[in-house]
């Protein structure tokens, strides 16, 4: 049996092999790369600060950013004290 894809007849064996190789390649690509250990990683607020640099354009924005940073810091203290 075969399917017509882009005007060409493709056998089901080739579709099956293509699917298996594509899935294997995706798994291999997702497992590669540098790993960081969870115990020595930076706190969430530090990672957010590095990933999303935000500069305030006015004093209201700066106050909002400070309140968000304080909220995250307090949530980390509460969450980190009772767990592990």
From TrEMBL:
Region described as Disordered: 33-61
InterPro entries found in the cross-reference section: ATP19
Cellular compartment(s): Mitochondrion membrane
Pfam family, one: ATP19
Main location group: mitochondrion
One BP term from GO: proton motive force-driven ATP synthesis
Highest taxon, organism lineage: Eukaryota
Keywords: Membrane, Mitochondrion
GO cellular component: mitochondrial membrane
Protein name, as recorded: ATP synthase subunit K, mitochondrial
Organism (species): Rhizopogon vinicolor AM-OR11-026
